[in-house]
Design a protein that fits this description.
8 helices, 26% helix, ten-stranded antiparallel sheet, 13-stranded mixed sheet, single chain, Anthranilate synthase, 423 residues, globular, alpha+beta
């Protein structure tokens, strides 16, 4: 193989040989407790999932062909790899964690092959060790988890008042027929007393939101409730979330609020745009047919409730999970519709670079199976200063949107990361 993969891939050494060995192990305890104090990689739901550390190989990608180039790099890497997998479940064997930018025109995306992965699925535990060119795997240093100390928050690109005006502007654009829906995000800056030990917020996110995917890839961390696509043995599933209401903390009132959400014409319209975009994208890979339930259900999270729909289909064209991600992103749940017009409006109105917020994050294994979420309820650590982070939240804007209600929803969506940072 050549030393570099071109066409938008930067600094991408292609290793001549990776040796991967996967074996069953005894229960080592909670996955997140295994992580070292640097280079943590994680994709965990409840007690199951994957954690990794070290770097056997990586590729950094830019541009509109970033997903295609990621597939090329992964395929070439697999062709030169010696893999022995005694477990044979999704996520065992050679695996890469990935995180991609929301907008193809900005930022850098990445795939990372860890030196060590520990996984748990349905009572089976395993450990994969990956070495490059026959070299030994490094042993990570571990230390006690460090709290971040005092945390100060400040406005990001826009103040709350300015962002509300942007929402009002977007509603006017929708009324004028420029778009049917647009998803607008805002950011919040966090300044920590001490450099962030990502294990601290990861543990809190996993404990508070066990039904979400708690993730960490290259300084991006969070707990996403939205599965962009899961591919397993030829079956693709996407969980679409759009339409949100805050929880009140009162169980009886929340029952009434959930019923109200399920009947809300504004939220149902927003949700329908998102479901349609996912169903149309998956249909192209599933022989022209996917299963879409006639009505959404209400997903209850500790801080909010969402309208949710699980779209499923049997993949007939041999696509990998990365190939499906390429077709699905950006969905109307994080961009809007029509896609190109909504993306242009986001670039015009938001006043910031989303980076990898609202982009695909997850993993792919050597069979092409994988699970990719949308990077929501998350924060990105400043590459130059680990005491600084940007937190993100966003809302789908349609004709019936009210700016103050959308602002309140965004504030509620910032709660998971804000709470996870406090000592």
């Amino acid at each position: 193989m050549s030393g570099l993969v071109s066409c938008g891939v930067t600094s991408a050494p292609a290793l001549a040989l990776l040796t991967a060995r996967t074996a069953r192990i005894a229960d080592p305890g909670p996955l997140l407790d295994l992580l070292p104090d640097a280079g943590a990689l994680a994709w965990v739901t409840g007690s199951e999932g994957l954690v990794g550390w070290g770097e056997a190989a990586r590729v950094d990608l830019k541009g509109p062909d970033r997903f295609a180039q990621a597939e090329v790099w992964w395929r070439d890497l697999l062709e030169g790899a010696d893999v022995v997998d005694e477990v044979g479940v999704p996520g065992s064997g050679l695996l890469a964690f990935g995180s991609f930018t929301f907008d193809a025109s900005t930022g850098s995306s990445v795939l990372v092959v860890p030196e060590v992965v520990v996984g748990h699925r349905e009572g089976t535990w395993w450990r994969t060790t990956v070495t490059a060119d026959g070299g030994p795997a490094r042993q990570p240093s571990r230390s006690e988890v460090r709290p971040p100390g005092t945390v100060r928050f400040a406005d990001g690109a826009l103040s709350s008042a300015a962002w509300a005006r942007v929402v009002d502007d977007a509603v006017r654009r929708i009324a004028a027929g420029q778009v049917g829906k647009v998803v607008l995000a805002l950011d919040l800056e966090a300044c920590l007393e001490k450099p962030l030990d990502v294990r601290w917020p990861l543990a809190r996110l996993a404990a508070d939101y066990p039904g979400c995917r708690t993730f960490a890839v290259e300084g991006l961390l969070g707990a996403t409730p939205e599965v962009l696509v899961r591919l397993e043995k030829g079956v693709a599933t996407s969980r679409v979330l759009a339409g949100t209401i805050r929880r009140s903390g009162d169980a009886g009132r929340d029952v009434l609020e959930a019923a109200s959400l399920a009947r809300s014409s504004k939220d149902l319209e927003e949700h329908e745009y998102a479901v349609r975009s996912v169903a149309e994208a998956l249909t192209r890979h599933c022989g022209g047919s996917v299963d879409v339930p006639p009505e959404p259900f209400v997903l209850h999270l500790p801080n909010v409730m969402h309208l949710a729909t699980d779209v499923t289909g049997a993949v007939t064209d041999g696509s990998t999970s990365l190939g499906l991600v390429s077709s699905l992103h950006p969905s109307a749940a994080v961009c809007g519709t029509p896609t190109d017009a909504a993306m242009d409006l986001i670039r015009e109105l938001e006043g910031m670079d989303r980076g990898r917020y609202a982009g695909p994050v997850g993993w792919i294994d050597s069979t092409g199976d994988g699970e990719w979420g949308i990077a929501l309820r998350c924060a990105e650590v400043d590459r130059d200063d680990p005491r600084r982070l940007r937190l993100f939240a966003g809302c789908g804007i349609v004709a019936g949107s009210k700016s103050q209600e959308e602002l309140a929803e965004s504030v509620a969506k910032l709660v998971p990361m804000r709470d996870a940072l406090h000592s």
